Amino acid sequence: MESRAPPTAGPSTARGVAASGVNGTPLSLRAPVPRDLHGDVGERAQVTAAMDATFAETGAAPAPLLQGLWEYVRAGQEEILLSPYLPASCALLMHVLLCAPFLALDALGSVCQRVRSWRITAGSEPPPTPRQWLDCFCRILCRYVTVVLPASALFQRLRSPRLPQLAPSCWQLFVEVLACVLLFDAFFFVWHYYIHRIPWLYRSIHKAHHQHRNPFALAAQDASSAELLSLLLLSLSCAWLLGCHPLSEVIFHLLNSWLAVEDHCGYNLPLASHRLFPFLGGAPHHQTHHKIKCFNYAPYFTHWDHLFGTYRPPVLDPRESQECRAQ
């Protein structure tokens, strides 16, 4: 009698097993994985396959453009992309690059009346000098090297990130980035509110940031080491809690960095984000917080301040700061 080999599972069956796990239990994208990034190659491949199956189960095929971009980013760069030092290093680099246009505006303001008119404090205070920019950069760099970089690297090792082969769909990318920004805005509001309400927390963590009554772009990260670290971990945690695709996480961090720089830039530009999207507060909203510390705690959106009665329309007269007790 001719013996027949047992049937092998086809691609769809294999994908279903990878996605369902044992006894049909769904495998989460963030299921526990080995923490050693240089561990067994086969085990890492299984984890990546499970992640791909999870993304495939969303029912939306990755956009060709996003898939091509994701494959280009991943090609031969996996060890670099999984480096625990990458997030903090990129955060600092992107912050400096995003601040460059506002440094140029500060320089142009000395010769162009139109640029000067865009400054929120036009006519009352001059723009920051190059020496102020340099001193600010040196403080930020020192805090990143000594505290933020090693601490965030430890957090990344605990996360054990993986790189799936499939890119997200356009809709998945949009939803995940928007969800991350909203979640970060909510977490930051609570964190910021209590930092100001508890005196010893304000003095030990947040007071250094408020040395800038009229902030400029680079000053968005001119804060204590504890504050810089807490905000970086907060942004990383948002993407981790939502189980975002790594590409969505990258876009979120870029957008988050830009919004923070824009909040502190000191300019009310004609095409600023808060002019295009009225639900954003923008630089006038946050500069009011630097003038009057007990209002406008949310970083980007204004709905939390409206809900909790801490919203204040942009008021840029320095005398208004007398309404609050000096902190």
TrEMBL record:
Localization of this protein: Membrane
A molecular function (GO) term: iron ion binding
Transmembrane segments: 173-195
Residues of the Fatty acid hydroxylase domain: 177-310
Disordered: annotated segments: 1-36
One term under GO cellular component: membrane
UniProt keyword list: Membrane, Transmembrane, Transmembrane helix
GO biological process, one term: lipid biosynthetic process
Pfam families: FA_hydroxylase
Record-linked InterPro entries: Fatty_acid_hydroxylase (IPR006694), Sterol_Desaturase_Related (IPR050307)
Name under which the protein is recorded: Cholesterol 25-hydroxylase like 3
Native organism: Oryzias latipes (Japanese rice fish)
Lineage: Eukaryota, Metazoa, Chordata, Craniata, Vertebrata
